[in-house]
Design a protein that fits this description.
2 strands, single chain, about 70% helix, 21 helices, mainly alpha
């Protein structure tokens, strides 16, 4: 079977295998699910190593007839989706290992749903047929619904219903837009849409506006952008640790990916109209999310609102429409997935010992748990953007891109760094070095070898990405440049290159119309 199909459906095959294992054999169930997710990770690492970063188009393309009427099985990977597939494949085994002792009831069902969720997420990132994309997009909701609704906290039903209603509303509008696109083009092939948009034989500007709004709403809910963010803190607080890791680490990135893959390149005329408003919403998300994180008393809620702020910066960089911003957004999505995933893992480890997430219920933990304290500090500094760690590279590239698009938004966007340092370091000080308010803290044991094994790979990646970002950025540069050319009709270059910069666009309605000439697809392997 081709590699992309293996990566996509191996978790589903693992879930099917678990159906035949008796639920009483919990250890066997855990090892089989972990083995399936590790196999997917190994395949994804092989995909990353064999991926040609110099090619801008799709690679490892797989295509076969499916339902007819333009609906076909069509997968491919480029620099935009490569890192997100790898991030998903990495966080799944980490999440399964982290839930080894925390999930005790209905273990078999939990593991099956986690593996089905992995298939849905990877399918979203690899689909080149927009109908197939929609199938994976909706299929992902089912396991996440049950993961929060069954294994979540006291208000899990409310959080689950809110999450599903928000997501379904946006998804239904996107489905209507997909049907309109098919009626106008006679195809669901994403690459055909790119060709039509680049040739000028596409949609009139008025229709583009409505279709763009339908896509943008679905993706903005998933990011989430203010004011569509309210489902996120509830879902994070109530979700089990593994669910929070996947939700923050990967699912939020699906919204940003949707803008990069669909909304921006397919509707450039509409982009020119809505870019200033979308950029303003990103700035509101950055500042509002940071201020809300400052006043949270629950650690999970604090991390959830920090995601609103950080993803606001990612989306502002996406809307800068230049190579620096797009490269920074792709890199920062991976960095945020690692750092925020690690934060939720650490919160989960603390909750297992104390059964509380309130900051006031901790204090003095650094004396009782020095190993956890070290991991916690590194993760905090990564999320705050300390030089030498992964968060710094992503944030500085995002800010460079935003500055090239407009100095004022960049000045306002810098607030995410200041606010992050305030709420993250303040929380660390209270939890690890504050006065002991809960006597049971003195009985906490430090990290076990399994728990160290969960956190150590993430921390190592934080340092590796922070010290050697070049190899990763080279994997995405050509695809990012092609994305910019599709949206703006101009060739994107790095400011540091010998040739003069031509991709730095203003955050004002200055994006060329769809009739602008765009380069043809390069490096497409059928």
């Amino acid at each position: 079977m081709p590699v992309l199909s293996l990566i996509t459906f191996l978790p589903l095959a693992g879930a099917a295998l678990l159906l035949f294992v008796p639920r009483e054999r919990e250890n066997l169930l855990r090892f089989l699910s972990l083995g399936a997710s590790v196999a997917v990770l190994a395949l994804s690492v092989g995909l990353y190593l064999s991926f040609d970063g110099g090619r801008a188009g799709m690679q490892f393309v797989e295509r076969a007839p499916w339902l007819g009427s333009g609906i076909e099985y069509h997968l491919g990977v480029d620099g935009v989706s490569l890192l997100l597939v790898l991030l998903t494949a990495f966080l799944l085994p980490v999440s399964l290992l982290a839930s080894w002792s925390s999930v005790r009831g209905k273990v078999k069902e939990f593991l099956i749903l986690m593996l089905v969720l992995e298939t849905g997420i990877i399918g979203v990132f690899l689909s080149l047929n927009v109908f197939l994309f929609y199938v994976f997009w909706e299929a992902m909701l089912i396991p996440m619904y049950f993961l929060i609704g069954v294994w979540g906290g006291a208000r899990r039903v409310y959080a689950t219903v809110k999450f599903v209603l928000f997501t379904m509303f946006g998804s239904l509008l996107m489905l209507v837009a997909l049907i309109v696109l098919y009626g106008r083009s006679g195809t669901f092939n994403l690459l055909d849409y790119y060709h039509l948009a680049g040739s000028g034989a596409w949609l009139d500007p008025r229709l583009q506006v409505w279709l763009f709004l339908a896509f943008a709403l679905a993706f903005a809910v998933k990011v989430p952008l203010f004011p569509l963010h309210t489902w996120l803190p509830d879902a994070h607080v109530e979700a089990p640790t593994a669910g929070s890791v996947i939700l923050a680490g990967v699912l939020l990135k699906m919204g940003a990916y949707g803008f990069l893959r669909f909304a921006l390149p397919l509707f450039p005329d509409a982009v020119s109209k809505f870019l200033p408003y979308l950029s303003a919403l990103c700035l509101v998300s950055i500042i509002y999310g940071g201020l809300m994180a400052l006043v949270q008393k629950d650690i999970k809620s604090l991390v959830a609102y920090s995601s609103v702020s950080h993803m606001g910066l990612v989306m502002l960089a996406v809307f800068s429409l230049n190579l620096e911003g797009t490269q920074g957004a792709l890199f920062q999505m991976v960095s945020h997935g690692l750092s925020t995933g690690a934060l939720f893992l650490i919160v989960g480890l603390l909750y297992e010992r104390s059964h509380t997430r309130l900051i006031a219920d901790y204090g003095g933990l650094s004396r009782q748990m020095p190993v956890l304290s070290a991991f916690f500090l590194i993760t905090i500094l990564s999320s705050a953007g300390l030089p030498g760690l992964n968060g710094f590279v992503g944030e500085i590239l995002c800010l460079f891109g935003v500055f090239l698009a407009g100095p004022l938004p960049a000045v306002l966007a810098v607030s995410t760094v200041i606010l992050a340092a305030a709420y993250l370091l303040g929380m660390f000080q209270k939890v690890m070095h504050g006065p002991i308010t809960n006597p049971s803290v003195r009985t906490f044991r430090d990290l076990t070898p399994r728990e160290i094994l969960v956190l150590l790979p993430i921390v190592l990646l934080m340092f590796w990405l922070g010290l050697r970002p070049g190899p990763v950025l080279r994997k995405t540069e050509a695809a990012a440049a092609l994305h910019i050319s599709r949206v703006t009709g101009r060739h994107a270059v790095l400011v540091s290159s010998p040739s003069p910069p031509s991709a730095a666009s203003s955050m004002s309605p200055a994006v060329p119309a769809a009739s602008a000439v765009r380069p043809e697809e390069k490096g497409v392997h059928e």
